[in-house]
Amino acid sequence: MPRKTIPGGGWQAIRYTLRKALQVGPWRLWQRMRSRNACKTCALGMGGMKGGMVNEAGHFPEVCKKSLQAQVADMIGALPADYFEKNPLEALMKLTPKQAEDAGRISYPVILEPGANKFRTISWNDALTLISDRLKETQPDEAAFYASGRSSNEAAFLLHSFARVYGSNHTMNCSYYCHQASGVGLKMAFGTGTATVDLDDIGRADLVFLIGANPASNHPRLMTQLANLRGRGGEIIVVNPLRESGLETFFVPSQVKSMLMGSKIASLFVQPKVGGDIAFLVGVLKQLDEQGLVKQDFLAQHADGHYEVLEHVRSVDWQRITTDSGVDRSTINETAAKLANSKAAIFAWAMGITHHQWGVDNVLALCNLAIASGHIGRPGAGMMPIRGHSNVQGIGSIGYSPALQDSIREALERAYGGAKLPTTEGYDTHAMVEAADNGKLQFLFNLGGNLWGSNPDSDWASRAMQKVKTMVYLSTKLNPGHFYGRGQTTLILPVLARDEEPQPTTQESMFNYVRISEGGTPNVEGPIRSESDIICDIADRVLSTQPVDWKRLKDLREVRKIIGEIIPGWDKMRTIDDTKEEFTISGRIYHTPAFSTATGKASMIKTPLPDLDPDELMLMTIRSEGQFNTVVYEEYDIYRGVPHRYCILMAAEDIKRLGLKDGQRVTVRGEAGSMDNIEVVEGHIRAGVAAMYYPESNVLIKSRIDVRSKTPAFKSAPIRIEINKSSGSQSQTSAKSLS
Length: 739
Ligand SMILES: Nc1nc2c(c(=O)[nH]1)N[C@H]1C(S)=C(S)[C@@H](COP(=O)(O)OP(=O)(O)OC[C@H]3O[C@@H](n4cnc5c(=O)[nH]c(N)nc54)[C@H](O)[C@@H]3O)O[C@H]1N2
Ligand SMILES: Nc1nc2c(c(=O)[nH]1)N[C@H]1C(S)=C(S)[C@@H](COP(=O)(O)OP(=O)(O)OC[C@H]3O[C@@H](n4cnc5c(=O)[nH]c(N)nc54)[C@H](O)[C@@H]3O)O[C@H]1N2
Ligand SMILES: [Mo]
Prior knowledge:
Elements lengths: L7 E2 H15 L1 H9 L30 H11 L7 H4 L2 H4 L4 H6 L7 E3 L7 E2 L2 H14 L5 E5 L5 H14 L4 E3 L6 H11 L8 H6 L2 E5 L3 H4 L1 H12 L3 E5 L9 E3 L4 H6 L1 E2 L3 E3 L6 H14 L5 H7 E2 L1 H10 L2 H8 L3 H13 L3 E5 L1 H4 L4 H14 L9 E4 L6 H6 L8 H10 L13 H9 L5 E5 L3 H4 L3 H9 L3 E6 L5 H4 L4 E6 L10 E4 L4 E5 L13 H13 L12 H11 L9 H4 L3 E2 L17 E2 L13 E6 L4 E2 L2 E2 L14 E4 L1 H6 L7 E5 L4 E9 L6 E5 L23 E7 L6 H9 L1
Parallel strand pairs: 1-8, 4-5, 4-14, 6-7, 6-12, 7-10, 11-20, 12-13, 14-15, 15-16, 21-27, 24-26
Antiparallel strand pairs: 2-3, 2-16, 8-9, 17-18, 18-19, 21-28, 22-23, 25-26, 25-28
Helix pairs in contact: 1-2, 1-3, 7-27, 8-27, 9-20, 14-17, 14-18, 14-20, 23-25
Bound molecules: ligand MGD (2 copies) and molybdenum atom.
């Protein structure tokens, strides 16, 4: 029997909120939640000048468990002054992600020197001098700058522009491990790489096609929109190998009726195989074509490439489609009928689509379906990648990538007094870690995030990162990446979160909406500094004042003016400090079928079906409701009924086939490594597919990279199950798997 699962939202979410509030004081938490700052968690976006817990449409209250988790986590006390004295490296390496997170806010700079077994405190002056001296000694081509999407547009802009003036284009961000395939695919199809719809469009749609995403736990506020859509008679097609309970019924905490009765979410739940999405999408298109339901007039006027795509779709036979997708013909036909009957459909997706070697093809197959069914370039219809980090889209928009468009580079050179910026393309994230492993990286600067924890093949990531001469982290909290992803010399510098910054900053949501965060006062005491201030100080020490006066750029109004001048669609940023006007970036949302491609038409591009071994057990590494990426807040996963993180979720059929039992401990062997003492949990997952939690399971995964997006296949890793010879305790498993 599958374990008992709990539907999404509801009283448990409210009880959790109350418990969290008591940890830091309800009034104090309320004030923080209501402060005028963009929410720190996902990219759905809320807060900003309209006030905390308000969305861009002005709706209040908007709140979810995650935003509370993140807020409370930043408010708990600081690391004790003697923390590193008491905890040598060896002890730090035994911390689980949750223990590292719970240790407290980093509130003073520390350094780990070559050969030392303990971090020691270091003054800001000494830390910044050491960092700038090391940068001066390093060839710019051997220095890299990673950013996670947690930082502000201003800090990210300062860091990438400093790196380029210094001479390095190795500026990459976490999106290479996240939505890069969406950006690449959307750009190929429509000429822009982000959502083509805004928040209001969800209110206009009558169908949402939700594939490879679990918003019930990862974007809970989207669930209100989905519940409302069902409430007004709309349809939701969910495509996911795992029957996520929150995608069937969700209890929206802010709606009385929903809290009592629950809101139905999926009107059709399709469970494909991992790797079966393209076959399924091609099948739906084939059915539309066979029924004469493809919008031929729309294609003739507004699309390119449709002949080739339709020819391909016709050439794939039904047998292959149903076998490869694992979806039967009647479900494919039902999906096609719902799409054809819809007046306005939105296609929404997340990591279940991008985390594959065929990630870009997955996105293109979705675009093909949207174009051929005419659900693009109209109000209420279009593409909606459900983004991850709260500002991952912003840092990409303002140029945090290994290659700047020529026009932006030239504009930046002009804005920076004629500075000459490098033109060769820098490393993507995976290529950067490979360069480190090949001894080609001397210096690595991390603006937030947990690069080590987000990498596939943890042993490889440890080995590669430990070769780097100087490793610098700007972080709010500790995570295992600081210890396993250490360099020969490692500095951890404490930074303020956005609601603690002395100056306002900005963030961009997944709907291309730029918010202002007003800032505030630090939650904990200590010499904690703002990200942008640290970056300007380093830049000033390395490059002095010519041609750029970095000290002047400490005034973030100046940075916003430059961004407004050089980034297309961001004109309003120039005057935002006077107007306080939050805005939607122009040129990205398509309410008419005029696209940003060279021809102005949407491009349809053929998507081959991946060749997969049908007998292989495929692992998808996923998130639980109680974590935010590599940060673990709670060990259990209530939505899926999984008691702790060292579990493997499997179908009853596979459990039986392999001669296992629910609750049994096994060894899971992947291409890169293995994990012992993993508990088998029976779940509502399709046969042939298993699920485990990221980041712990990254020890198993070999880097199979999608050539176009450079994204590792985190959701299609072949594994084997072995019966445990010896059984140990759970903590031994975690320590072993990490070392
Ligand atoms: N609570 C919480 N919220 C978060 C985060 C978090 O860690 N915790 N992380 C943030 C970030 S950075 C991101 S990118 C997003 C991630 O948000 P999601 O993408 O929703 O998260 P995942 O758990 O990685 O995977 C999502 C779903 O994809 C399904 N899936 C896996 N493989 C396949 C496949 O081959 N085909 C199909 N159709 N489905 C598949 C899984 O069953 C799972 O339900 O969430 C953001 N919000
Ligand atoms: N196997 C597997 N691997 C994956 C994934 C998966 O689904 N499966 N998902 C991938 C995805 S979608 C992503 S986005 C990446 C995540 O990659 P990252 O963005 O690199 O990782 P996070 O876990 O979000 O980073 C957490 C750390 O950020 C720091 N931090 C928090 N807030 C701030 C802040 O305001 N400023 C600064 N400077 N630091 C801050 C804290 O120190 C915290 O410990 O992982 C990827 N890796
Ligand atoms: Mo992400």
